[in-house]
Amino acid sequence: MTPADLRAAFIADLTAIAPDLDPAAIGDNDHLQDDLGLDSMDFLNLVSALHKRFGLPIPEADYPRLATPEKAVAYLAQMLAT
Question: pLDDT value at position 34?
Answer without folding.
Answer: 95
